[in-house]
Amino acid sequence: QLQFVESGGGLVQPGGSLRLSCQVSVSGSTLDHYTLGWFRRAAGKEYEGVSCIDSSGGTTNYADSVKGRFTISRDNAKNMVFLQMDNLKPEDTAKYFCTADLSYTGCLSGMDYWGRGTLVTVSS
């Protein structure tokens, strides 16, 4: 029903920036019905909800670990969601997954639809 193509990951030095993009294909519905988000998983750790944005783009939520550094946005006309990551730290190193769900409630705790992920490495 949903397909994701994530891009923008890579190697960056501490203090640097990256912008993740995710193209979402939807069949049988439209993307503006879905909450979108980003999760990450570092090696040896659990999945962590990073950020989510409601269907209209008017409400966002962030993990405490990224507040003030990351910004989520979406473009419903282009079926895309973005994660601007600034002042990156080594502890941000992880695989980042684009996600979607029909509900905004509890979006940092889990979402129903997942992409395959893009790797972000923060290292000098």
Description:
With 124 residues, this protein is mainly beta. The protein has no helices and eleven strands. It has strands spanning 2-7, 10-12, 18-26, 35-41, 47-53, 60-62, 70-75, 80-85, 94-101, 113-114, 118-122. Strands 2, 4, 5, 6, 9, 10 and 11 form a seven-stranded mixed β-sheet that branches. Strands 1-3-8-7 form a four-stranded antiparallel β-sheet, with no helix packed on it. A hairpin with a 6-residue loop joins strand 5 (47-53) and strand 6 (60-62). The N and C termini lie far apart (40 Å). The relative contact order is 0.31.
Q: State the total count of DSSP E strands.
A: 11
What's the helix-strand series? EEEEEEEEEEE
What percent of residues adopt helix (DSSP H or I)? under 10%
Overall 3D shape:
globular
The average pLDDT score comes to 96
Beta-sheet strand percentage? over 45%
Q: Spans of 5+ residues with little confidence (pLDDT < 50)?
A: none
Gist?
The chain is mostly beta strands. The protein has strands spanning 2-7, 10-12, 18-26, 35-41, 47-53, 60-62, 70-75, 80-85, 94-101, 113-114, 118-122.
Feature tags:
single chain; seven-stranded mixed beta sheet; four-stranded antiparallel beta sheet
Topology:
Blueprint lengths: L1 E6 L2 E3 L5 E9 L8 E7 L5 E7 L6 E3 L7 E6 L4 E6 L8 E8 L11 E2 L3 E5 L2
Parallel strand pairs: 2-11
Antiparallel strand pairs: 1-3, 3-8, 4-5, 4-9, 5-6, 7-8, 9-10, 9-11
